[in-house]
Write a structure and sequence with these properties.
Blueprint (H helix, E strand, L loop, with lengths): L12 H13 L12 E5 L2 E4 L4 E4 L2 H4 L8 H13 L11 H13 L6 E6 L2 H16 L3 E5 L8 H6 L17 E4 L19 H12 L6 E6 L13 H14 L2 E5 L14 H4 L5 E4 L10 E6 H4 L15 H17 L1 H17 L1 H4 L3 E7 L2 E9 L4 E2 L1 H13 L2 E2 L1 E3 L5 E4 L7 H18 L10
Parallel strand pairs: 3-14, 5-6, 5-7, 7-8, 8-9
Antiparallel strand pairs: 1-2, 2-3, 4-10, 9-10, 11-12, 12-13, 12-16, 15-16
Helix pairs in contact: 3-11, 4-11, 7-8, 14-15
């Protein structure tokens, strides 16, 4: 039985009506990918206000790894709402915050004493990680990477690389932010080939310390183990070993941003577990609480303790309902073995998408880690000219045919997959039939879908 059940054209009449009301009430900057208004959801399925059922390969931009309305999460949140919805941890603490901190301290990589602070979002977690690093090192500068995304606040927007739409007309930006190339093998900043390149891009950090910023003034290097908005780029494993060694040598705090890659997406709870690195500070968010607003900074106890009492906090940080939801998320991961499921999904997608290079001339690169997978589209494989308009056409074809999916990448030419890990094999197959038809629709007329 198919999950996708379209009873109207997409968008349907009720969604169109809400879109018209939205245009009068909501600013255009708060853009949406698909003009579909959702009435309810469960697992990997969305039901819109017109009665259409659709598959969700976006997961609230990576927030729904345990699926929509996961029963344990819903029950935990409901029970906490019946006790109290908010107190402010800075005034009267509560045990859910402490229990979640203990769990994150135990589950994050690193064979050292750790502590955790909770916040309300991934961007807020990044902001606090930078504050903590600066407090610990007494240094001002931060090094970030090309193609990175760390959020939309002033500091995180400054750390973010992509200009349009995230930074256009929003300056001036925060000072003391420096940028170096990321390990993007398909679009190597040095026009080299791996492994002969000997990860030249990682050693560029030392070049920056000679040409751009004194390492003695650098508080932290912040890096995503897999680029999120930047296109799900996965550098060679040794790339991170070089970065880690350079940071250690210069007394620089290494911050790993796992807001999008964390909580099972890559086949381990956190991606850096597969990369063999133990970050000084690890930032998490998104799927941490199955869509409830929550983020965390977990790190070395001595680093985390650097700010003075009262130096870290906020009105809503570590909301008790979100904390209970996060504890239920971790329990769900254990009970349903979602880490194993992510690895299985990743292997399935890897096999399937590697067929696309011969079937679709647009498909230039397929990549990812675990279930965090992407397809990069180009107009010409020799010049690697990004196929932005074609990517947009693929995304639109998909939602018009019942599959919600997202693009990514600095050039907007990457199709990314953020499907809930509870998706069934049949739903996975059904979604990919739509995706393949979408790729065929923007390819040369003679190109057929991989599977009819």
């Amino acid at each position: 039985m198919n999950t996708i059940d379209l009873r109207t054209e997409i968008p349907g009449p009720l969604s169109i009506g809400w879109t018209e009301r939205r245009q009068d009430a909501v600013p255009r900057g708060a853009h949406s990918v698909a003009p579909v208004f959702v009435a309810r959801a469960e697992g990997a399925i969305l039901h819109d206000v017109d009665g259409n059922s659709m598959l969700d390969f976006a997961g609230g931009i990576g927030c729904m790894n345990v699926g929509h309305c996961a029963p344990g999460v819903v029950e935990a949140a409901r029970e906490q709402l019946g006790r109290f919805s908010h107190l402010c941890f800075a005034v009267t603490p509560y045990d859910a915050y402490v229990r979640l901190a203990e769990e994150l301290n135990r589950r994050t990589p690193g064979s050292f004493a750790k502590k955790t602070m909770l916040v309300s979002s991934g961007a807020e977690a990044v902001e606090n990680a930078v504050k903590i690093a600066r407090s610990y090192t007494r240094r001002p500068a931060i090094v970030a990477f090309e193609d990175a995304f760390h959020g939309r606040t002033l500091l995180t927007m400054s750390l973010t690389s992509k200009v349009r739409p995230y930074k256009v007309s929003f300056g001036p930006f925060a000072p003391e932010v420096y940028r170096v190339p990321y390990g993007y093998c398909y679009r190597c900043a040095y026009s080299l080939e791996y492994p002969d390149c000997e990860v030249r891009c990682a050693h560029a950090l030392e070049d920056a310390f000679r040409r751009t910023v004194d390492p003695g003034s650098v508080a932290a290097v912040i890096v995503e183990p897999v680029l999120g908005e930047g296109g799900f780029v996965t550098p060679p494993r040794e790339y991170f070993h070089v970065l880690s060694e350079i940071c250690t040598r210069h007394g620089i705090v290494l911050i790993v941003d796992e807001v999008q890659s964390g909580f099972g997406r890559t086949g381990t709870l956190f991606a850096c577990e597969q990369l063999g690195i133990e970050p000084d500070l690890l930032v998490s968010g998104k799927s941490i609480a199955a869509g409830l607003p929550l983020g965390a900074v977990t790190g070395r106890a001595e680093v985390m303790d650097a700010p003075m009492p009262g130096g870290l906090g906020g009105t809503y940080v570590g909301n008790p309902v979100a904390c209970e939801a996060a504890l239920a998320v971790l329990k769900t991961f254990d009970e349903q073995r979602l880490i194993d499921r992510a690895a299985h999904i990743g292997e399935w997608i890897d096999r399937r998408t590697r067929e696309y290079a011969s079937a679709f001339p647009l498909v230039a690169d397929v990549r990812g880690l675990g279930a965090m997978r992407a397809i990069e589209l180009v107009r010409d494989r020799r010049s690697r000219l990004p196929a932005k308009e074609e990517t947009e056409a693929v995304i639109q074809y998909c939602w018009r045919h019942g599959l919600i999916i997202l693009s990514a990448g600095t050039y907007g030419n990457v199709v990314r997959l953020l499907l809930p890990l509870v998706i069934t094999d049949n739903q996975l197959e059904e979604g990919f039939r739509v995706l393949e038809a979408a790729l065929a629709s923007v390819s040369a007329p003679a190109t057929a879908a991989v599977r009819e």
